[in-house]
Automatic annotation (TrEMBL):
Protein name as annotated: Ionic transporter y4hA
Residue ranges of the TM segments: 12-33, 39-59, 71-91, 106-127, 139-159, 171-189, 222-241, 261-279, 291-315, 321-344
InterPro entries: Alkaline_pH_Ca-Antiporter, NaCa_Exmemb
Keywords of the record: Membrane, Transmembrane, Transmembrane helix
Bilayer topology term: Multi-pass membrane protein
One Pfam entry name: Na_Ca_ex
Record organism: Kitasatospora nipponensis
Length: 370
């Protein structure tokens, strides 16, 4: 009797992602354009978080249907769409006040993925099997693309002179956006068509990989339903973000925190489900899948977010500041250097995971107390 009740409760909880997107959309319709009391704002905030989690869950279902490594690509694109929606919504509401929000969010995503998710995957995988094994060819290509995208989009604006401040001129912004799209497209082609085997989990120590702990392959009908709910959840995310953003911004200001903390919050929110998915892969002794998710998210965050924000800047009232400051430049250089040393051998111990996590910890401390 108890086991039956537990199974029933588990089944209900497992289906929350089916009910939450419609519920979030209904809540959005009820609160849109109204002045809300704190309790309703808190409820909208919870619905926003739930809608993000549900969106990425349904993206996972679609990703499972199409298989690896295309699945990692689907997840990365879904997360990026949510990220772009949140950034553009907040920038449209605040104008010049959030001129650095895109830069702060993209850089936070790079630090979280390249140090946080990568570090956790390596640490979990190495603690479980003594040495975490992955393909240096595919992982190295992904890291090189992330480093190039970050340099072209976030480093160069700091040193250009055509426009005052760490900003691109219109011509430079167009070039950076096109370069980001081309590089991302080339990587996707490499990952999914020409060199797909570079991004598949290798055998660890000559032994077979453990079977995946996924459910059975979703049916076409289940994938279509998930795709529909994913789109509905994305609409709810954008609308609820616009609703709760004034309260979040005022809370950050009252707490005396830098404005860049908003970017960290957005990046942590949208990357939380992907972090969980990467850790699950690492626990199955599939560190490569976790690294695909991490670096693919970093790449999509730059390669898709920067062009999208560049297009949005045409009608946004405030400036678009992309150039990193000195502290962040140092952290980015350290991340790329350590990443290269980690990737080249194709094997990692818990030490490498700890090193990456320490860089992320330093970034978080400096984000709160610059």
């Amino acid at each position: 009797m108890t086991d039956s009740l537990t199974d029933s409760l588990t089944a209900v909880l497992a289906r929350w992602t089916l009910f939450l997107p419609p519920a979030a959309a209904v809540l959005l319709a009820l609160v849109w354009g109204r002045s809300l009391p704190p309790v309703v704002v808190a409820l909208a905030g919870l619905a926003l978080v739930g809608a993000v989690l549900a969106a990425v869950h349904h993206a996972e279902v679609v990703a499972h249907r199409v298989g690896e490594p295309m699945g990692s690509l689907v997840l990365a694109v879904a997360v990026t769409i949510i990220e772009v929606a949140l950034i553009v919504t907040l920038m449209a509401d605040s104008g010049a006040k959030n001129a650095t929000l895109a830069r702060d969010t993209v850089f936070a995503a790079v630090m979280i993925t390249c140090n946080g998710i990568v570090g956790l995957c390596l640490l979990v995988g190495a603690l479980r099997t003594r040495v975490a094994v992955f393909n240096p060819e595919g992982t190295g290509a992904a890291l090189a693309t992330v480093a190039t995208l970050a340099t072209l989009s976030l480093v160069l604006p700091t040193f250009t002179t055509s426009t005052p401040g760490p900003r691109f001129s219109s011509t430079q912004l167009v070039f950076a956006s096109l370069a980001a799209l081309v590089l991302y497209g080339l990587f996707v082609t490499t990952q999914t068509v020409r060199h797909r085997d570079y991004f598949l989990p290798p055998e660890a120590g000559g032994g077979p990989l453990e079977p995946e702990e996924h459910a059975d392959l979703p049916s076409r009908r289940a994938a279509v339903i998930s795709l529909s709910l994913l789109l509905l959840a994305l609409v709810a995310v954008v609308g609820l973000a616009k609703t709760v953003s004034p309260t979040i911004e005022s809370g950050v200001t009252r707490a005396g925190l830098p404005a860049s903390v908003m970017g960290v919050v957005i990046a942590m929110l949208v990357l939380l489900p992907e972090t969980i998915a990467a850790l699950r892969a690492a626990r199955r002794n599939q560190v490569q899948t976790g690294l695909n998710l991490a670096l693919g998210s970093a790449m999509a965050s730059i390669g898709l977010t920067i062009p999208a924000v560049a297009v949005a800047s045409i009608w946004l009232s405030g400036p678009l500041i992309l150039g990193l400051g000195a502290t962040h430049l140092v952290l980015l250089a350290l991340t790329v250097t350590v990443g290269i040393l980690t990737v080249v051998p194709g094997r990692a111990t818990p030490l490498q995971g700890g090193v990456h996590l320490s860089i992320l910890a330093g970034y978080v401390v400096l984000a709160v107390s610059p």
